[in-house]
């Protein structure tokens, strides 16, 4: 004779303790990860298993109400439990609980088979939903933290907190870093950016400021045994080109670590502000190629770089080289006019220009480089005047 629903409910309640004990024993037998857990975590998992059994009884009483929602089942355990066991392990736990219930309950009352199957399906989907929500919340938190880290890099503030914040994001790059700035697309394909970076043995931090997309690129040097095989930052920037909107892209100089990323970001920002003044600028372009424009816009770092890398090496090497470069630029890059002004042979001018190029790495015979050198000479002369005034 079949039981009434009320009688079945009373029977299920009476064996719930037995089911919980059997479930814990079965978990220990079947799941290695459960056996290896500390006692406190095992206790939490046990609470979840018992809550699952109790929820089945409540669900059977009224399938249309949902007091057993997975969030409530997991609510009996500490929040850390969701972080310590994976979705796969959670589904294994549910499978064991359902199997115990099925073996004991269906064997006694065949009419409950369908109820057990429906319950197992619903709670499995709900468990997946709990983990999906947790992942979404984690993703939103990571996005906010990443935006905060990029802001800190741009402003140069909170440098002492930068390392811990970056570690919380799972930053894997321990090598050199460079900042890349361009126009943001709508929306920004951050997954695509990260995928291309990984292919180039790099990690990225991504931030959007108004219409600007800031990408801090870090090398993961340990992934490539031979450091020479690592792609340059310019190569990585070129591979990310399609993820930026229409407009210029400026790559800051390479720095030793993410702790110094502010220097690269400041240079890139300064370059981005002036890059449109050079109509033939490449995309992407190095911020160092825009030193002249940045200097004219008031960038003190660019001014200092030009003086220290161009003017000072020449003035300290030979006054003749400095004099030759100044005369060559002032005469419109004419060898003959420079030679007449200095009372030397044109071949002497050629030799000195070659020496200048060897010392500073810039070729005065090119129109673009001549412009940069002209700005450097003016800045150098101004700095010399300031030094003499102080004396």
Automatic annotation (TrEMBL):
Belongs to the CdaR family. It comes from Rhodoluna lacicola. Residues 321-377 form the PucR C-terminal helix-turn-helix domain. Signal peptide: none annotated. PANTHER family: CARBOHYDRATE DIACID REGULATOR (PTHR33744), PUCR FAMILY TRANSCRIPTIONAL REGULATOR (PTHR33744:SF7). InterPro entries: CdaR-like_regulators, CdaR_GGDEF, PucR_C-HTH_dom, PucR_C-HTH_sf. Residues 155-270 form the CdaR GGDEF-like domain. It comes from the Bacteria. The lineage of its organism: Bacteria, Bacillati, Actinomycetota, Actinomycetes, Micrococcales. This is PucR family transcriptional regulator.
